[in-house]
C-alpha cells in the first residue's frame, strides 16, 4: 500500500490504543507489583532486611534497565517492519535480541557473584545491611537471563501488536512467585533468601515462556551478528540514557542511606511505589511505541501525529488519577510495608512530592513512548543527560551536604521530571520526530 493511501485511512482511535495499552498495563504492573509484595513480606522481618532489599533491589535494577533497553529498542525496530508489511522481519528482530539477552544475562550473573559485596557496601551505610543485601543479590542474579529473555520477547511481540500472550506469560509467572515469596520467607524459614529464590522462579518461568513462543514463531533461530550489531548501535543512545537514570537512582539510594536506616526504608517504599506507578503509566507509552512505529513504517505521518496527541492526553489523565489515589492512601499505605513508626515519619516527608509529580510524569512517560516508537532516541538521550546532570544529581548531593533529608532527595527527582516535561512537550509540538520509513 502506498504512503498516500495509508494517509487517507482513518487515524488510529482511542479504542485501538486501549486494546494495546490495557494488556501492556497488566504486564508492566506485574513485576513492580510483585516487588511491592516482596517489600511488604520482607519489611515484616525488620528494618535491616527492608533496607537490604532497598540496596540490593537498586543494584538489580541495572538488569531491569538492560531489559528495558532491549524491549524498547526491539519494539521500535519490529513495529516499523510490521508496519511495512514484513512480519517475518519483525519476528527476526526478536530472535537476535534474545541471543543478546542470553549472553548478557550470563555475564551479569558472573559480575554479581564477584561484585555483590563491594557494591552493597558502597551503597549501604550499615555493615549488617550490606551483608544481607549481598546475600540476596547473589541468589537473585540467577533470574537475570530469564528477565532479559522476557524483555526481548515483550519487545518483538509489542512490535507485531500481540499483547495477549505477554500478558499470560508475565502475569502467570509473577502470581506464582507472589505465592512462593511468603511461603519461602516464613513457613519454610529461608527469610530474606526466600525472597531472592522467589524472584529467580518468576523471572525464569517468564523468560522460558517467551523463548518457547519465539521458537514456535520462526524456524530461523541462528544468531546474525550484523543484526545484533544494528540493535546495539540503536541501543547505544538508550544505553547512555539508561545510564543517566541508573546514576540518579543509585545516587538517591546512597544519599538516603546516609540519613539512616529508617530514611532508606521509607525511600525504598516510596521509590517502589513510584516505579510501580511509572510502569503502569508506561502502558500508554507501550501502545504509542507500537502504533507510532507501525504508522511511520507504513508512511502514515498524520496517523503517527494523531497517536502522539491522544497518548499525551491519556498520559496526563492517568497521572492525575494516580496522584489522587496516592493522596488518599498517604496515611495508610506505608503501614502495609512495615510497622516501624520511624519509617512512617520519613515516608510522610516524601509523600507530597510523590503526589505532586505524578501528573507531570504521566505526560513525560507517554511522550517517551512516542519518541522511542519514532526512533528519536538521540534526542531522548540528550535531554535525559541534561536533566540528570543539571537537575537530579546536583540537587540530591546538595541535599546530602546541607543535611536536607529525604525531602531534598525527592526535590531532586522533581527537578528531573520537570526538565523532561518541558523538553518532551516541546519536541512533540515541533513535529521533528515524525520521520517516515521501515528503518530510521
TrEMBL record:
The keyword Transmembrane helix applies. Keywords: Cell membrane, Membrane, Transmembrane, Transmembrane helix, Transport. This is MATE family efflux transporter. PANTHER family: PROTEIN DETOXIFICATION 44, CHLOROPLASTIC (PTHR42893:SF46), PROTEIN DETOXIFICATION 44, CHLOROPLASTIC-RELATED (PTHR42893). It comes from the Bacteria. It holds the Pfam family MatE. Belongs to the multi antimicrobial extrusion (MATE) (TC 2.A.66.1) family. InterPro entries: DinF-like, MATE_fam, MdtK-like.
